[in-house]
Design brief:
The protein contains 12 helices and 19 strands. It has 412 residues and is an alpha/beta fold. It has a single domain (1-412), classed as FAD/NAD(P)-binding domain (3-Layer(bba) Sandwich), CATH 3.50.50.
Length: 412
């Protein structure tokens, strides 16, 4: 425990101050970031820290972290399928490893390992493929078989009793979980300390464009003059892009998850099954955090359903029958923006001054630090960093897609 926390405990927390300030909104900012989640806040943090750009406004229509950043299931990994994706997410994992030190804030990152199960020959071939791609990029990832899986997850049923017995798995030791709200708060606190303005309850209602160039942002609190706008929203990215006349190849789908009552620690790794469409991890408080695939329809609804929890429970119990009596405490849903190739859209657009960091599907939180760092570099230098160049908007016209469906077939 840090000396700072001990002092706060001894004085009854009387010296506590808000983690970020409520600033008056200026008439103009150099940069306006739409979206107060991990991507928007990380970009603001790295703009200030790495490039000295502080005349920045982060606009959030609700409260900080109320969107996808507060509704995800906290899994971090870099064992993707394409070389472009592996390198990108690997930098994010490395940034997460040092984030508590960088922000002077405990983000509770637990690198406990990540298992992606294979239930048939085809899946096992894909796991071998992914392992080879990962290893060529210097990422710790390998295929393991039931004897080793039993040591990693001793309560999993590895017999031939389940309908889809486990034949092997892709094991990724650097993978793990992190406290999502702590990450958001840490970035917001540091960005505020460096002079960035964070405006909650500020909804963007329009973006002014003149001669194909952004000139301002209209909000429910007034108009802001600016020459640079970053769309860092999830669920609403298409609506924001439509304000400048830009169409995005994105479908918005709900993603549901749930959490159980706390149990004694028994699961030290993250378990994912693309065949059974579930993922499972145990939090530091003992709760089981579980989820499945995105809902099979487009919607802006964030209502959770009985159908989801029934289907998820059935699949989880196939491999973890000892959980039959465990009670589910709560369930929720978030919105996922899915692109045709299951990769994000980042960088410049045909509208000058309008930038994108969108289309993250079910894996946006994993990429928060690297997206923020590289988008800040792009904004500061007006050049696209090599690491994010494959995810440009124009790839949908050139046909140079980055197909990650094989590594993102279940929402996790």
């Amino acid at each position: 425990m840090s000396i700072k926390l001990i002092k706060q405990a001894l004085n009854g927390h009387q010296s506590l101050i808000p983690m970020w300030r409520q600033q008056p909104m200026r008439d103009s900012y150099d940069i306006v970031i739409i979206g107060g989640g991990v991507h928007g806040l990380a970009t603001a943090h790295y703009l200030a820290k790495n490039h000295g750009i502080t005349n920045v406004a982060v606009l959030e229509k609700n409260y900080i972290g109320s969107g996808g950043s507060g509704r995800n299931t906290t899994i971090i990994r870099s064992n993707y399928l394409t070389p472009e994706g592996v390198l990108f997410y690997d930098e994010s994992v490395k940034l997460y490893e040092n984030l508590a030190h960088e922000l002077d804030f405990n983000v509770m990152f637990s690198q406990r390992g990540h298992l992606t199960l294979a239930h048939n020959d085809s899946s096992l071939r894909t796991m071998r493929w992914r392992a080879e791609v990962n290893q060529l990029q210097g990422v710790d990832s390998r295929v393991v078989y039931p004897d080793e899986i039993k040591k990693l997850a001793p309560f999993m049923d590895l017999t031939d009793h389940p309908r889809y017995p486990v034949m092997g798995a892709l094991y990724h030791p650097p993978g793990g979980i992190i406290r999502h709200d702590a990450v958001v708060w840490g970035y917001a606190r540091d960005a505020d300390k460096r002079g960035v303005h964070i405006h909650q309850k500020t909804e963007v209602t329009g973006i002014t464009v003149q001669d194909n160039r952004v000139t301002g942002v209209q909000t429910n609190r007034g108009t802001i003059r600016t020459s640079t706008v970053l769309n860092a929203t999830a669920g609403w990215s298409g609506l924001i892009a439509d304000m400048v006349g830009l169409q995005l190849p994105i479908e918005t789908r709900p993603l549901q998850a749930c959490v159980t009552e706390p149990l004694k620690p028994f699961l030290d790794v993250v378990v994912v099954s693309g065949t059974l469409h579930f993922y499972l991890s145990q939090s530091d408080r003992g709760e089981l955090v579980m989820g499945a695939e995105v809902d099979p329809f487009t919607s802006y609804s964030m209502d959770s359903t009985l159908e989801f929890v029934e289907g998820l429970a059935g699949h989880v119990l196939e491999l973890f029958p000892s959980l039959a009596k465990v009670r589910i405490l709560r369930q929720w849903a978030g919105l996922c923006d899915m692109t045709p190739d299951y990769s994000p859209i980042m960088g410049f657009t045909p509208v000058e001054g309008f930038l994108l960091d969108v289309g993250w599907g079910t894996y946006g939180f994993k990429a928060g630090p690297v997206s923020g760092k590289r988008m800040a570099e792009l904004i500061a230098t007006s050049r696209t960093p090599e690491l994010i160049a494959p995810f440009s908007y124009d790839r949908f016209y050139t046909g140079k897609l980055v197909g990650e469906k094989g590594a993102a077939s279940v929402g996790h």
